[in-house]
């Protein structure tokens, strides 16, 4: 297996650092220039390696997550707007339904009042017709009774006249006498 040149250089530097540190023998707080250089060099190598391998994947995942979160937020905003629109539509439908219910109740009340008035008018009209019919029947019965009384009076008058005259009147004489009598009775009834 062949090592890339930068990997080989990094490996050599890693092995050289402990040897170099052992030669100097500085204290723990002493500034070691070689160590600083190697640290920056290793940091740069790690930075280059990570920027070419891991960071694109990490940044892609972060961007994908940001996109997903943005889509979720936009979806939530759309859902909120849709819910608000649905709530407004429900409120409008409820108001429409209430208005229709009030209208139907008022219409039913008006129809009920109209039917009541019609029933009352019909019953009054029928009552008037019955009273008028009863008046006509009473008047007809009265006329019939008067006519019956008149005939009876005529018959009695004819019998009395026959007995007085002692003869029987013929049909023409009879009719003439009845007419005269009725005219006299009618004149007395009107006075």
From TrEMBL:
HAMAP family in alphabetical order: ATP_synth_b_bprime
Segments traversing the membrane: 31-50
Keyword Transmembrane on entry: yes
Localization per record: Cell membrane; Endomembrane system
UniProt subunit comment: F-type ATPases have 2 components, F(1) - the catalytic core - and F(0) - the membrane proton channel. F(1) has five subunits: alpha(3), beta(3), gamma(1), delta(1), epsilon(1). F(0) has four main subunits: a(1), b(2) and c(10-14). The alpha and beta chains form an alternating ring which encloses part of the gamma chain. F(1) is attached to F(0) by a central stalk formed by the gamma and epsilon chains, while a peripheral stalk is formed by the delta and b chains.
Species whose genome carries this gene: uncultured Gemmatimonadota bacterium
Keywords, comma-separated and alphabetical: ATP synthesis, Cell membrane, CF(0), Coiled coil, Hydrogen ion transport, Ion transport, Membrane, Signal, Transmembrane, Transmembrane helix, Transport
Coiled-coil regions listed in the entry: 76-144
Protein name stated in the entry: ATP synthase subunit b
């Amino acid at each position: 297996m062949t090592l890339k040149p930068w990997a080989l250089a990094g490996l050599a530097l890693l092995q050289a650092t402990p040897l170099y540190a052992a030669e100097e023998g500085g204290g723990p707080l002493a500034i070691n220039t070689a160590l600083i250089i190697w640290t920056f060099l290793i940091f740069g190598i790690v930075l280059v390696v990570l920027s070419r391998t891991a960071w694109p994947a990490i940044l892609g995942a972060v961007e994908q997550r940001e996109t997903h979160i943005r889509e979720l937020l936009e979806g939530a905003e759309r859902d909120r707007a849709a819910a608000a629109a649905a709530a407004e539509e429900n409120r409008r439908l409820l108001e429409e339904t209430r208005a229709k219910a009030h209208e139907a109740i008022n219409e039913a009340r008006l129809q009920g009042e109209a039917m009541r008035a019609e029933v009352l008018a019909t019953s009054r009209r029928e009552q008037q017709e019955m009273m008028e019919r009863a008046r006509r029947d009473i008047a007809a019965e009265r006329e019939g009774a008067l006519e019956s009384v008149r005939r009876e009076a005529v018959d009695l008058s004819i019998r009395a006249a026959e007995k007085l005259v002692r003869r029987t009147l013929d049909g023409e004489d009879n009719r003439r006498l009845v007419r005269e009598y009725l005219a006299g009775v009618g004149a007395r009834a009107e006075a």
